Amino acid sequence: MDPDQPIKAEGSAPEAPSVNPKTLDNASKLLSVPGAESSEAFQNPATVQSDSPSAPLPTAGQVGTEATTFPEAAIRAEPETMADQQHDSHEGDQRSMKPTDNLERLVAENVPEVLESAVKIGVDLLNQLNATLVAYNVLDVEAFCKSIDQLKLQAKPFRTVVGVVGNTGAGKSSVINALLDEERLLPTNCLRACTASPTEVSYNDSDDPTELYRAEVEFITADEWLKELEVLFSDLLDGSGKVSRDCANADSEAGIAYAKLKAVYPLKTREMIAQGTPEKFAAESSVKEVLGTVKTLKAVSAKRLYTELQHYVDSKEKITGHDHRKRKTSMEYWPLIKVVRIYTKADALSTGAVIVDLPGVQDSNAARAAVAENYMKSCTGLWIMAPITRAVNDKTAKSLLGDSFKRQLKYDGTYSAVSFICSKTDDISITEAVDSLGLEDELSELWERAGGLETAMKASQSLLAEYKKRKKTLGDQLDPLKARRDLWDELLKEIGFGKTVYAPPDPSKKRKRPQKGFRNRKIRSDRSSHERNSDDDYQESGYSSSEEDPQFTEDEQPLPLTKQEIEAKLASITDQLKPMREEKRTLKTQIESVREEIEEMETEHQEILTEIKARCIQGRNDYSRGEIKQDFAMGIKELDQENAVEENDTTFDPDQDLRDYEEVARTLHVFCVSSRAYQQLRGRLQKDDFQGQGFTSLDDTEIPQLQQHAKKLTEAGRASNCRKFLNELTQLINSMKLWVSSDGTQDTLTDVEKFHEETHLRKLLNDMKKGFETAIKEAVDLLEQSLEDNVYSVLDSSIPLAINEAMATAQGWGAPKAMGGMMWTTYKATVRREGVFTGASGPHDFNRELFAPIGRNLATGWDRVFQRRLPAILYGYVVKAKKHLDEFRDAAQDRARERSTKVSGMGTLISQLVAHVRSMEQLQVTLRATINNLQRDASREFTPAICRAMRPAYQVCQDEHGLGSFNRMKAAMAGHVENSRLTMFRDAADTVKTHLQAMCRTVEARLIAETEEMLNAIFRDYMKVLVHSHMEISPEELEMRASLNNLLGLSDFMFARALEGPAVGEPQITNGAASAASAATVDTSSEEGQQDGIQGEAAFVKREASVESQRHDPMRYVGNASIAAMVDAEEWM
């Protein structure tokens, strides 16, 4: 930039993109301030015209986000008195800053909920400001409107991506469903793990009741499917071009390829597949219309969405019988899916967490593997899941992940973001747990109590059986007596009606057998039946009849009964019944009592067993947690020591820890969860035969703790994002205040004085510019030197190691299986996929194995640069930037004091500088995030570069067929590695070095752009305040500025709500238009109005409410109402 050109008043520097690694002619061209270094710049004051801009600040970045203040001078305010001019400027600044306290305090807040409340209020304020701006046909407001729109975009919720990784069978889907508080939401993948696609689950912000649950199924592109088809055809067809006989083996490469092709092309026979080509298959219309599209699903319930998703992600191989025959001809979509996104209103995701179920970066589908890799790079958190039965036995934290995975975590700097989840804690053997955990003594008392209860229960059950037996015997005795009593009662009743009745036969006495006749035999049969049956049978026999009973002979004919005889008989039966009934009642009471005792003992016994199981579960959880923490720390230690030895074995001291490994273990989050127990306690899984003993509360399942952990992970990002928004909002508010009050009517300077003030301002800014140039150059130099010492030099020393080991590595791939080599089919499948394949024998990556000698040595230096040196470098730059801003502020204030100049907007200017300082601090955070993303990309460039060098060998091996093809493949591979090893590692290193150099240029360009933008903004703001330019303003614009002035004056009261709710006597906003702001507002720009505003502010200064009260409905006074129309002067007084 020409030093004689003025600082640009308009236009914003865009965020610097990644640039080429050419050396920028930057530091000397950062920013120049005209007239600051040459006396030739001075001209005749009479001819000088101020170039002070009247346009508003053009971008949100230029107008910032800091504390709001009341305008220090009203539009068309009177000049200050001499007494006012003699006031200490510092006191004046502090007084003018008081009204901005609420927003200032919010910018320094750490509680995300409070900050988010403030952001909502800020967005409402921006809407009000925009409505006021567009309501008037005034020039020069477009830039403000653009700044408002850009700033509102920053208010979007912050996303925190959490990747979930784990082997098949780890229970990831079940745990995530429990995390979401849904019985079933995540789709079930098809039968083969190789077809699983990444599934992203995030919060559903839609308020539409018809889409409470949403999903997006994204399909791979046509090019991606064509590449996949080429690999599938290569796996499926043998050397003769026919479908391989191995396709019948579902676990073979040919079987997997055949299943995918048949899923997408169900009508294709083997012969049709053999005669086809990838190009023809990819061109079929039924497939083309799906590729590259996104299918959106909506549902009102999780079950409905789950069912709809299954249509796309599930394999129909599981369907059998007639239904299978009907559906097998329909196309399946699972091989074509790239990623599934689900949106749900789960509380665990409400703060911005995004859970991603990652199937692994070794997926046989390159498109899905790339998606998984990109998620891994962007993850803020990483959850590693394994069943608790394997987590400790398999040393998950130490070895299950693999050295390459752990090393990549070190490159990415994400070790601190790792959490472990041990699933299926309900799967436990009490006997094994007691023995392995040594809980015999601890549980001995419980076991004794349980044993005693079991003995007591057996005794009570025996007693209960005895009581029941006696009760049954009594019942057998009582039933005939009660039947006879009922019969005699009936006889008594009939005799009362005047009938003649006879005594019924006594069933205990034998009757004479009739001697002859069919009638006698029939009577005998009836009598026998009567004797066996109930009282009703007696009554039906007609003993109450006055006729003679035909079953008796004349000599045996009974005499009629009298009433007295019947009553006597009833009394006799009652005497027999009474003691038996009393005994039965006693038995019943005893039985009930014993049953209650047994139930109580069973309940107590079950509680004891539950407590025993709970202690075993908790004991295993605690043991597993401790072991995993130690394993993880020791895994890091071993990796550090390995790197230290390879870096310099002469200075390696095994007794000297390279970091605090106890702290590494302590800070690792480990959760031992049972999704099934959680779901059961929540009333779900009703169809499952699941016994949830051992889990007496939801907290015992640790799912609630995991849900809180998901929300906790978002706090840092949410708070940082909100503070950045509020800081830039402050700068916008301050800039608008300066603009609405800079109409030139308060000018007290002559043209000559304005010229001198502008020249002095340019000189101050030019001095500050030089300081920033030096600070930027020093920061970039330090970063480059750190890369040279810790990365480039290690690369140079490690390349010979990789060259020496390359041949042994390549030959090992083709060694006999007993010596760790690969089967021919696996070898072939790997070269077909450019060296990366996951099969039944596990993952294989030829490119990474060749790079391993470099990767092992480089990890520690890489970690040192980006996780230790870089934060210190950026912090040092911020310290220097703050120093230069402080020096500029002090010089500007000194100048005002020396000249006794009326500086009505100095308080706002100071607030702007504070906001710029915070912007520099925020830049430190955003720059580190940018650098981390760039360095993660760079660290992943090694293996692609080696892959490109190995591609000719992969192609040659892939083309080999027939007799002796495996030997020719191995020979071709070894020959290529031998010829390429001297160059491919250097080329890979140079590729990465180029990326890192470009990263440095990006950092430099970003610092220059941010600094230039800040200096331009400072120049414009100070010119408005210190060097006013007289201009003609239309009445319409004056009205608009007055409306804006009132809105801005009231803005700070809005943010008081975010801190502690409404104060007593504070006016409430009512509905109204923003354009009515000038109708009923206080003239807060006058001195009296300012004092009233400051007094009104005092009610909000103290913040003693709890966090919960801060969260309570912070927006209830805002709504969609206008800010200005709610107030009149009396309400504020």
Explain how this protein is built:
This protein is mainly alpha-helical and 1133 residues long. Helix content is 59%, strand content 5%. The chain is built from 38 helices and eleven strands. The strands form two sheets. A nine-stranded mixed sheet has the order 4-3-5-2-6-1-7-8-9, sandwiched between helices. Strand 10 (836-839) and strand 11 form a beta hairpin. Helix 6 (142-153) packs antiparallel against helix 28 and helix 18 (403-412) runs parallel beside helix 31 (846-898). The longest helix has 85 residues, at 563-647. It is extended and about 155 Å long.
Number of helices: 38
Helix content: 55-70%
* Mean pLDDT figure: 75
Question: What coarse outline follows from CA principal-axis ratios?
Answer: extended
Rg estimate, integer Å: 44 Å
Search tags:
disordered N terminus; 5% strand; 38 helices; extended; nine-stranded mixed β-sheet
Summarize the structure.
The chain is mainly alpha-helical and 1133 residues long. It has 38 helices and eleven strands. The strands form two sheets. It has a nine-stranded mixed β-sheet with strand order 4-3-5-2-6-1-7-8-9, with helices on both faces. Strands 10-11 form a two-stranded antiparallel ribbon.
Provide the fold topology.
Blueprint: H1 60-63, H2 82-85, H3 89-97, H4 101-107, H5 112-134, H6 142-153, E1 160-165, H7 172-179, E2 199-203, E3 213-219, H8 222-236, H9 253-264, H10 270-275, H11 278-282, H12 285-288, E4 294-299, H13 302-313, H14 321-327, E5 337-344, E6 353-357, H15 366-378, E7 381-387, H16 388-391, H17 396-400, H18 403-412, E8 418-423, H19 430-437, H20 440-496, H21 518-532, H22 535-540, H23 563-647, H24 661-667, E9 669-672, H25 675-681, H26 698-701, H27 703-712, H28 715-741, H29 751-813, H30 824-832, E10 836-839, E11 842-845, H31 846-898, H32 906-939, H33 942-959, H34 965-1026, H35 1035-1060, H36 1087-1098, H37 1107-1111, H38 1129-1132
Parallel strand pairs: 1-6, 1-7, 2-5, 7-8, 8-9
Antiparallel strand pairs: 2-6, 3-4, 3-5, 10-11
Helix pairs in contact: 3-32, 4-28, 4-35, 5-6, 5-28, 5-35, 6-28, 7-25, 8-9, 18-31, 19-23, 20-23, 23-24, 23-31, 28-32, 28-35, 29-31, 29-34, 31-32, 31-33, 32-34, 33-34
